[in-house]
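The authors assume throughout that readers already know how a fold can be written as discrete tokens. The format is easy to grasp once an entry is in front of the reader. For illustration, here is how one protein appears when written out as sequence plus structure tokens:
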Amino acid sequence: MTDPSNPSATPVEPEAPSGGPRDGADAAAGAGTATSEPVDLDAIERDLDDVQAALDRLNDGTYWTDETTGEPIPDVVLDANPTARTTGSG
């Protein structure tokens, strides 16, 4: 970064919380991101599958229909869980 009020200032690298220069991994992770946490790829894949299924139901006109009962899924249920396939009461 340069000081806009001092045109001859030398650019300075942002510092990591440890006080050292940030490396590419730190910069990519962003502030407040824990990079040592394990990633549950299976859970992410299930979430993506649920989103794709919801998009498919939206495209074929069945998004608002409970897959078990055939009854409409209330908007309040879909607002809380956009990938819901049932109201949970059937």
